[in-house]
Specification:
By secondary structure, this protein is mainly α. The protein is built from nine helices and four strands.
């Protein structure tokens, strides 16, 4: 929460949010240099440059706040002392410092983590670091801390790699074509275009390649934070079992099954040393 899993961009997100908003402070977090080890997923898409990051992040923050208000009205926001919410926020405190090296903007994001009261198996991270988990993904899959960290890392990776910005950039380019491209430096029609596409933040879906990229980046983030990246295998095994009925929201656009697990296993040698180092430290 390609979206992921239909992550946050998934359609039909009926929000029963649990969790008062909390801006996460990250003590001692410093911008990291590009990683010399770990996974390699290349540069961000050129389409991200067609839409200003500030505009998308502002829109995401507004939509996130609206979701929290709706949740509060339904008495569905988990209080700050909720055990599961505290668990997630502690996890985020460990992961976020390692996220900064993937995107310089992340150092200035107002990170938030909230819990969504719903049976849906879902989680997401909006642009700007706005994270939410549905209680269903924690309870129905009985996620361990390592598995939950893999989910959180995956979602954060979507935001760091600016997959929403990329998808919106492609949509904008398709929508007004040459006019957009000719106006992009001075914005011109771009401002209105972003406004129009802003409403799609909750329905925007990521590509299969975006999902695979988020798997790898998320696995590295979890490993650097001291969570066992091998949990990605058990996580997707659990998802496969849950998928035998109706596909969970989180899986609606995801490449799942043996291929996904094989990709994770193939990249484990790149991140297990990071995990070992984090545990030793």
């Amino acid at each position: 929460m390609n979206n992921h899993h239909s992550c946050y961009f998934c359609a039909q997100r009926r929000l029963l949010l649990q969790g008062a908003a909390l801006t996460l402070a990250v003590p001692g977090a410093s911008l990291q240099l590009a990683q010399a080890e770990g996974v390699d997923v290349g540069r961000n898409s050129v389409f991200t440059k067609l839409v200003p990051a500030e505009t998308i992040e502002k829109s995401a923050a507004q939509q996130y706040a609206q979701m929290l208000q709706q949740a509060a009205a339904q008495n569905a926001l988990a209080g700050k002392d909720n055990p599961q919410l505290r668990r997630l926020r502690t996890m985020a405190q460990k992961i976020i410092p390692h996220a900064l090296g993937w995107n310089p903007r992340a150092a200035n994001w107002r990170w938030e983590v909230n819990l969504i009261g719903s049976k849906q198996i879902n989680a997401f991270c909006m642009p700007g670091g706005k994270i939410a988990f549905y209680t269903g993904i924690l309870d129905q899959l009985k996620l361990t801390d390592d598995e939950a960290a893999m989910v959180m890392g995956h979602e954060i990776a979507h935001a760091l790699r600016e997959h929403a910005r990329e998808r919106m950039g492609k949509n904008a380019a398709t929508g007004i074509g040459a006019t957009l491209l000719s106006q992009v430096l001075g914005l011109g029609e771009l401002g209105q275009t972003v406004t129009n596409y802003g409403a799609q933040l909750l329905t925007l879906q990521f590509s299969r390649s975006d999902e695979s990229e988020a798997d790898l980046v998320g696995m590295e983030l979890a490993a650097r934070s001291g969570f066992d990246p091998r949990a990605g295998v058990s996580l997707w095994q659990k998802m496969a079992v849950a998928n035998k009925g109706a596909p969970p929201q989180w899986l609606s656009t995801h490449p799942a099954g043996t291929t996904r697990i094989a990709d994770i296993e193939a990249n484990l040698p790149k991140v297990l040393p990071l995990y070992s180092r984090a545990r030793a430290g």
